[in-house]
Amino acid sequence: MYETRRHKDSVGTAPAATGAPPRAARYERYVGGTPEVERAMFDKLARDLMRVQLKIKKRSGAAGIERTFHAKAILGVENARLRFHHDLPEDLRVGFAQPGAEYPVIVRLSNASGVRQPDFAPDLRGAALRIQEGPDQAHDLLMTNHPVSHARHAREFVAFAQAMAGADTNLRKGIALFVKLPAAVGWSTAARMRRNVTAGARREVRSLALETYWSRGAILWGDAGPVRFRLRPAAGASAAPPPSQTDPDYLAHEISARLATSEIAFDLCVQRYVDARRTPVENGAADWNEEDAPVVPVATLTIPRQNLDTADARAVATRIDQLAFDPWITTEEFRPLGNLNRARKAAYEASSAHRRGHRFMTPPPKRNVAAARVLDTGFRALNRAVPWHRLPTRLGLLNVEAFRQELRRRNLIDTEIREAPPKAHPVPPPIDERLRVRRSYDGTYNDLSDPRMGALGSAFGRNLTPDYRPDLFNEPNPVTVARELLDRKTFIPARSLNILAAAWIQFQVHDWVDHKRYPAGTKSVEVPLPPGMNWSNTPGGKPEKVMRFAENEGIAPDGGGAMAPILFANSASHWWDGSEVYGGDESVAKALREPDGRAALLLEEGHLPSGPDGIPLTGFRENWWLGLSVMHTLFAREHNVVCEALRHEYPRMDEDSVYHTARLIVSALIAKIHTVEWTPAILATELIDIGLTANWSGPPQNWLTRLGLWLVDTHARTGIPKTLPDHHAAPYSLTEDFVTVYRMHPLIPDDFEFADHRSGRTLDTLCFNDVQGAATEALFRRIGLANGLYSFGIAHPGAVTLYNYPRALQKFERDGEVIDLSVVDLVRTRRRGVPRYNDFLAGLHKPRIRSFQDLSSDPETVARLKDLYRTVDDIDTMVGLFAENPPEGFGFSDTAFRIFILMASRRLQSDRFLTVDFRPEIYTPLGMDWIENNGMTSVILRHCPELAGFLPRTASAFAPWRPATPDGHEPGTVRDRERGRHVR
């Protein structure tokens, strides 16, 4: 279900799966055997059609993306009427098709080419109808003026489109038809396709009112079964003059003149299905012979007399030209049938979204593709002798870029349950215009073509194929593993960082990921305890022989059935949208604002108001401690300052717009801080600093670096915010593997010293339990924001390594439970099917370890690993990541870094508001300047200017600050020496 599927390029079919609609099941056959496999193939073909649109745009010089086909409209009216005949045959009286029933119809007549060429150029012609059954239901009928398709199935259809893309001259058309097309589909198939196209395109067309249009594919007609439909001129239509060879718009002029004097009428007719041989459903290139399937008129379409040369008529035509006609806009009673129609579901959605700027594609230049292959091969050989982090900086940058390109191709796995087989649907509602310029509360409509992508409740994706092994959930015992390898013996500090870095990453993770849990005591995971050990699972509870904690809620497949055991929904949105500050849904977000809809966030004398449980009211309130209070308070204040600046600069902006614009600005500023400040602080090398700065603002102005990026990844030359959204190989989501590598609880110290920034004198020394939960706010208000920031700034977090898990988190009270978070981390990773460490390495294209000594050079650690694990293949992922000796300057392992280099850029690259809509029109010019000119240091100083003398001069605010020196002593040095802390 979760694996990346590779399919042969074949058209072999298998009977419809049980998931198919009952009426359709007896007629349809799915390529690859199942609707899911076929859907994956169609999604790829849809992306191919988007590339065709880009090629047409480039060749034609059009300002925007055109329709892949039928680009040039000849007629667009919305006042036509369809009336069913009173003598409609009994078996055809289905749904809206009833005797005498009449409906308004939108009509679009067009040339078939994707290029806007003269009407006298050889071409097919098309008709699209939208029959308005009611305010919430319509039926789209699409037809072409040739009885059969040039393509039997979707693969041939897309191959033809690719060959013909931008073929706007006779020479290019010849090359397309006689060179490119045979290369794609074979000589005999290409010859048949050419014959069909030529027969239709070279017909003399005098008037689109006199053409007959065929559906080509079949649709269901209720219990009557499949039918093909056609639209033919009604009897008595007046003749038209010969086609012009000089007027490029003669067809539009002719139909305009015709409607100026009379109405136009067509008969809507159907042919009934007979059998799979004479009336095939899956072969779009096969004709339904009228002798086998007689033509039955069922309704009359009338386009009334009207003047098309008015402003109103032109506005209607423009409006209709923006519509996305789709044969799947109907009901299940009239469901489209056959391979071509099923492919249209994915193709029409993708191409229409691409045309309307809701979906994007940025195919890499051929030089990038070729260079990536060469570099991948070269660096694989080089890295056997020299790891990437020991290479010269510019060569290392190329090495990392090669890693990222490979990971993008092979390590993005979509886990969302997609619609398969396709289903009919009503006309999609128009997008709320406000959602084009602001983030939604729940993460919907970031991708306008797929509103649920990345939204609250959408599934976690995967970077690696899951390895779900219930038999190994408790092997080796996770409690024993935690005690032997994770317990903090002596605090191991990370000297290149301060505690603000630890608070920051939890602040960020709460924006990104949140697995929903069952209420405590309702559905639990039970972990057997080692012999002789007891555990109280509730505060004050009796000792038990098992450790128990709340199970995560999984996602059940559509239609019920067994619960998917390793598919989970994110209770936060996957986007970088500041939800930890603003809330993940509308009710929470509005409750956090000042009364009467004002834009500012609620603060009480500069602090967040407390809820009934003593925890501050903010967007994400779980696992609360002082570090989160500091971050949430700081950025709530920042939001309010931004609101004031917007009001001053744009006095006519209403409060709701002020709020949403400020949220955009603050969220983007947070993303920038994480990208160019926090990450280079925890991965402290020149290479990472250059790479992450390039992610945000482009590479340095160095010709050699820019030449390398031009060769390898031309889109990286400007910084991601100046590019188009790109989801690469799968729709955007954060992943379970990403969650695993961000298990950085060792960053949290066990005790904290709070000092007065003015004197450096100690105010208090407290353990973690004194600075978490309901105790937090009283302490925070006592010491104040400035002293809180200063105290965290001069102290070190823990190193992300073995033997350094915070003691307080190993007996942690949460939601009525007492949990050992080190055990929970191990168990969650196992139960979510994240591969164990050695498979994790292999899945990220790193060499597997062959012995325990390959993982650690410490004899004691090797002995403990051997004692706990039968083989190196059994080592827990988190244990392996913590045990690795990281590259010099790195705060976490090289293996975790592989996930990071993939997902760090993806969080930016997929986000509309950090790419195509990262612009002054959305953020305001003030907002763009605010993001450009600010960072963590300026945010801190805006709210605590008295800290200016303590912040690092040449490093980020996440590097150690200068401590105050009371009585001439350096308190940090004294404290470390007195406590005898081991420094890694």
Automatic annotation (TrEMBL):
SUPFAM superfamilies: Heme-dependent catalase-like, Heme-dependent peroxidases. Residues 1-25, 961-984 are annotated as: Disordered. Keywords: Dioxygenase, Fatty acid biosynthesis, Fatty acid metabolism, Heme, Iron, Lipid biosynthesis, Lipid metabolism, Metal-binding, Oxidoreductase, Oxylipin biosynthesis, Peroxidase, Plant defense. PROSITE patterns: PEROXIDASE_3. Residues 12-24 have a biased composition (Low complexity). It comes from the Bacteria. Residues 1-10, 967-984 have a biased composition (Basic and acidic residues). PANTHER family: ALPHA-DIOXYGENASE 1 (PTHR11903:SF11), PROSTAGLANDIN G/H SYNTHASE (PTHR11903). This is Catalase. It comes from Actinomadura vinacea. The lineage of its organism: Bacteria, Bacillati, Actinomycetota, Actinomycetes, Streptosporangiales.
